[in-house]
Amino acid sequence: MNNSAAVSYLESLIGKQLRITTTDTRMFVGTMKCTDHERNIILALTHEYRHPPAASVAAVATTSSSMGNIKLDMTSRFLGLVVVPGQYITRIEVEEYPAQEQQRGII
């Protein structure tokens, strides 16, 4: 991908809802505002999601009657405006609703 195509693609993501996963398995869901040459991403109206601690998983697993299937919710909190350092980003996903996908011809 040439430089102008990459810039154009990044510009198309501004204002979109992104889900960013970091190396410590946290997920940040927010609206992309900007990025820089070091791959840092600024998100607005951001929620942070964390997996439950291992101790909680173990406690539910020992008390659960279902074989192998347990359900625990991720913990979340509202952060607002955040900078996600590029060096810790492992995955970036664009969140789209089915109507948005139809407009782009995916479905």
How do the helices and strands line up, and which of them pair or pack?
Layout: H1 3-13, E1 17-22, E2 27-35, E3 41-50, H2 54-63, E4 75-84, E5 89-94, H3 98-104
Antiparallel strand pairs: 1-2, 1-5, 2-3, 3-4
What percentage of the residues does DSSP assign to strands (E)?
35-45%
Mean pLDDT: 86
Count of helices?
3
N-to-C span: 25 Å
Largest sheet: 5 strands, antiparallel
N-to-C order of helices and strands: HEEEHEEH
Structural class: alpha+beta
Q: What is the radius of gyration computed over CA atoms, rounded to a whole number of angstroms?
A: 17 Å
* Percentage of residues assigned to helices: 25-40%
Provide the spatial order of strands within the biggest beta sheet.
4-3-2-1-5
**How many β-strands, per DSSP?**
5
Poorly predicted regions: none
Shape: elongated
Could you list some keywords that capture this structure?
alpha+beta, 3 helices, 26% helix, single chain
Describe this structure in words.
The protein is α+β, with helices and mostly antiparallel strands. The chain has 3 helices and 5 strands. The chain has helices at residues 3-13, 54-63, 98-104; strands spanning 17-22, 27-35, 41-50, 75-84, 89-94. A 5-stranded antiparallel β-sheet has the order 4-3-2-1-5.
